[in-house]
Amino acid sequence: xxxxxxxxxxxxxxxxxxxxxxxxxxxxxxxxxxxxxxxxxxxxxxxxxxxxxxxxxxxxxxxxxxxxxxxxxxxxxxxxxxxxxxxxxxxxxxxxxxxxxxxxxxxxxxxxxxxxxxxxxxxxxxxxxxxxxxxxxxxxxxxxxxxxxxxxxxxxxxxxxxxxxxxxxxxxxxxxxxxxxxxxxxxxxxxxxxxxxxxxxxxxxxxxxxxxxxxxxxxxxxxxxxxxxxxxxxxxxxxxxxxxxxxxxxxxxxxxxxxxxxxxxxxxxxxxxxxxxxx
Length: 279
Prior knowledge:
Elements: H1 2-11, H2 13-16, H3 19-46, H4 53-86, H5 91-94, H6 97-124, H7 130-135, H8 138-145, H9 150-181, H10 193-223, H11 229-243, H12 246-256, H13 260-278
Organism: Spheniscus mendiculus (Galapagos penguin)
Pfam families: 7tm_1
Domain G-protein coupled receptors family 1 profile: 2-255
């Protein structure tokens, strides 16, 4: 369904001129890239295909960029909703299509910056383990590299702080949004559009950040020898293969099918295909 929604967004001029749809398209594109490369990595490991070191590093880098892109864009979508509700009269002036495109470019630059720094630290400290690179498995490589130098661990925990600062900013926006709109009565009904939107955003945030929280807790426990290496590998495999995939599966249904314009376009595509088959 992700390619279909992307086709609808990029093929309709009126849709791709709106900030929320441009951000949605960017998030879906990031998720699609991540799913494709992670599926490729899993298939190669299942087939016992050993990639060259350079190819494995490139694959891991692209996975990190794609996942960071989806994470940052999900946060940008929520901030966009915050601005649209609190500043409705100035919203179009604050976020015209030209500025939104620059924001998307900035999101991709930030998404690439963190993996670049992390990989440079790994490369300079020679923390890449040759046996892990032969497998090219993200969970295994993460487990083994975190047993490396203090520089690698520092880089890891700095990334953790950035992610949780981002999460704190989003929750602050939610709190301000709730108290600013509390008197308007839009929160009275649990089935109101505002309540459903709030629940939808929180669901996406939970599925994006909970896997990272689980991964960080597992890494902290393993670094301090609270759990064994084998247990850490199993937890990491569960996080990467299940928990990190869930938001990318739910995202198009929670956002793409809920927006009226996209939903109407998808229905028209389905109807046209049905009529074509009948004729």
